[in-house]
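Run: sequence + coenzyme A -> complex structure.
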Amino acid sequence: MHKERFSGLKILPMIDEDLDAVVDIENVSYVRPWSRKTFVSELNNPISHAFAGKLNIDGKDVLAAYSVSWIVQGEAHLLNLTVHPDFRRMGIARKLLAFNLRFMEEDAVGTVFLEVRRSNDAARILYEEYGFREFYVREKYYGDEDALVMGLELEDPLKSPYSLWRD
Ligand SMILES: CC(C)(COP(=O)(O)OP(=O)(O)OC[C@H]1O[C@@H](n2cnc3c(N)ncnc32)[C@H](O)[C@@H]1OP(=O)(O)O)[C@@H](O)C(=O)NCCC(=O)NCCS
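>> structure
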């Protein structure tokens, strides 16, 4: 159904050795990037699930994307989903998001939430494609801008037309 403009994306749990590359991508991707300390604390947080997407380029694994989500009692919060600027518009975020949704579903998650800047059209379009809908607005959540809180119900897959992450 979707364009695949790369092959061989491996998605693995994020490890300490990934953090140099993760922090570099984070710093060029956000006005208020997470610090290395934040990522280290996520790696040590039992409710946190951090994944790294790696491409094999010239025989070497290159960190192309990462995600961080929390799962607590059937509810998930997608906190971070980022793709290296050089590898955007290749379908990598789609792959990583689908992987996360499958992972959450297997962990009996009913609802997934996330926050996105109102102006972040790229992310909003991606999330909407996977069935996320705007739940409410957190005004000036980012200081300079509102956050849209988006949500997706995973509970009733048979009624959902948004089964893109299911094989
Ligand atoms: C948002 C982000 C994760 C998308 O990653 P990506 O790998 O480029 O996304 P994909 O290639 O999987 O795109 C999937 C679809 O999302 C939409 N999309 C992605 N980037 C877009 C853009 N810049 N403009 C419009 N639509 C876009 C398109 O519908 C796209 O499908 P198409 O390429 O077939 O048209 C990436 O731009 C990024 O890391 N941005 C900075 C960090 C960020 O904002 N993260 C989200 C925080 S909530």
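>> summary
The chain is about 25% helix and 35% strand. The radius of gyration is 16 Å.
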